[in-house]
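Structure tokens please, single chain.
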Amino acid sequence: MSEEPRIAIIGEAMLELSQDPAGNAKLAYGGDTLNTAVYMARLGAPVDYITALGVDPYSERMLSAWKKEGLDTCSVLRHPSRLPGLYAIETSPQGERSFYYWRSESAAREFFALDGYADILDKAANADWLYLSGITLSIFDEDGRRKLCQLASEIRTSGGQVAFDPNYRPAGWTSAAAARKAMEAFCRHASIVLPTIDDEHALFGMHTEAEHCARWHDLGVDTVIMKHGPDGATIHIRDAHPEHIAVPAPLAATDTTGAGDSFNAACLAGLMRGKPIHEAAADGHRLAGIVVQHRGAIIPKDAMVTSLSE
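Here you go.
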């Protein structure tokens, strides 16, 4: 392992279509794992982002932007004929968002069909941390998911950490049962799971928080950080009493896109630096609190840096 901890993040990056306050269309980029990767890089964490893009002008612009953000893009494969996926955001007056996707033929879905993927996974196996999400699992077939499970197993065996956000999106799965099966198989190799209570209820039923966390612990997960949006987060470590971490102050949300992704970023960046878990979770709240006051998944860099330095 490297002297400075590195994290490999795997997922799908997409073009993001949204509206500014005047109603004008705005084209940017996002995707749950990409959002986390960018925020972690801004916080100084060494990040290898693993995905596939096309060879089109939009893919070139995305790749250029990621390099400027400080992401290591050596593990981005290029598909000769496919394009990035696209999603549109509709935001309610209360700041809650709805997503509309065009991603069934995206380049990222073909990652395991492209030359070079095996070398990239070999490199990723040397990372200190691995992070991916339920959306990552949803874009691959069973063989691809098995490869991700093997990668996670190798990292854990070598002493690394594997973090996972279920981020359940029903449209990405043939059924809730298929999603549960894939996530539980992967999380047998995970050390940290960062779900939301709403996703837990949607995916596993209306159980208590303790029951949800016990299920992850039974799979071998050491730590569950249950996110409750504006109501904070609760840390559940195996064989320890839960610890609730409150949001520092209530904020009026403009757009909740990327709130959970940014929480994950700051929390994981803190843990990689050796911070106590309650401090890392508090960092997550601080970053998410500033992110929800801006439109889009990835906020202006200067707004984020200022918020975390205060």
